[in-house]
């Protein structure tokens, strides 16, 4: 079983973390996001994954020099220019010589979706393409997908204005596709699977979808990047993961409350870390308060600084002593 994993985006919503690191190479508790995505596919029988790369492809290639990730064989398809979602699928599938039914996933979605059930449903229906659907409170940011009683998609509404969506079931970013879908996608230009390919398939009655209430989070924003990690340490998914890495040096008077502290982090006396993520190698001086924020790798937070309101500090950035930051994104440029 083969899969295409879309990881070519610039990660603009997660800047400044992504000024230096592609989004899917950012750590989730103790390993890069891409390992969790590919590992989940491997548990459902995927043996080969094609990474559709664009932004900083060397970060992925250097991280997995033996061409394996989470037990799955990797292939790399580096886009010469951004091709959008359908264009990326076509380029990756063609580069890897995929000639049978395959899976496509968005590389920034962390989910417990039953991919095997989606695969089986696709074949039962004789579909050309099948989309996993997940419910959300506000579907206006997503592709909204109403279906009939047989599971056939009746429309594909990309990012409807608030209050106008025909349903709250959205495109969950996991698809099972036949090779004929690749043939539908023109080469040599950007093509959106949501705005062009899927609507054409709806018109021909060949696109199906399956509802799923499984855990699902698009981890591509600072808020959701924090959310998925706190869910892991809280046991929302599985038995609960280790919140503080054994190599972190935390002063006896410091407080770490409902936060993830990664490898090599140093936290000074009387500092408080709450509902936050501290990436590897960051240093927090004494009397720092970090509340609902993200500290990037090897960043330095000066004594007495206060960071709140989902402040995000990029790699190796230094926050001056006594600074008060609320909702800041630093540095502003890469």
Task: Write up what this structure looks like.
The protein has 334 residues and is α/β, with parallel strands linked by helices. The chain has 2 domains: 2-218, Spore Coat Polysaccharide Biosynthesis Protein SpsA, Chain A (Alpha-Beta Complex); 242-330, UDP N-Acetylglucosamine Acyltransferase, domain 1, CATH 2.160.10. It contains 7 helices and 29 strands. The chain has helices at 33-42, 57-63, 84-95, 115-125, 179-184, 193-204, 222-234, and strands spanning 2-6, 27-28, 31-32, 48-53, 68-69, 72-78, 102-106, 109-111, 129-135, 143-144, 157-158, 169-177, 207-211, 216-218, 249-250, 255-257, 260-261, 266-267, 272-274, 277-278, 283-284, 289-291, 294-295, 300-301, 306-308, 312-313, 318-319, 324-326, 329-330. The strands form 7 sheets. It has an 8-stranded mixed β-sheet, with helices on both faces. The mean pLDDT is 95.
Strand content: 25-35%
Number of strands: 29
* CATH fold-level topology of the largest domain: Spore Coat Polysaccharide Biosynthesis Protein SpsA, Chain A
Please give the order of strands in the largest beta sheet: 5-6-4-1-7-12-9-13
What general form does the structure show? elongated
**End-to-end separation:** 38 Å
Low-pLDDT residue intervals, each spanning 5 or more residues = none
Q: Structural class of the helices, strands and pairings?
A: alpha/beta
- Please state the average pLDDT score: 95
**What's the level 1 CATH class of the largest domain?**
Alpha Beta
Query: What's the number of helices?
Result: 7
CATH architecture of the largest domain: Alpha-Beta Complex
Largest beta-sheet details: 8 strands, mixed
What is the helix fraction of residues, given as a range? 10-25%
CATH level-4 homologous superfamily of the largest domain: Spore Coat Polysaccharide Biosynthesis Protein SpsA, Chain A
How many individual domains?
2
Compute the CA-based radius of gyration.
Answer: 21 Å
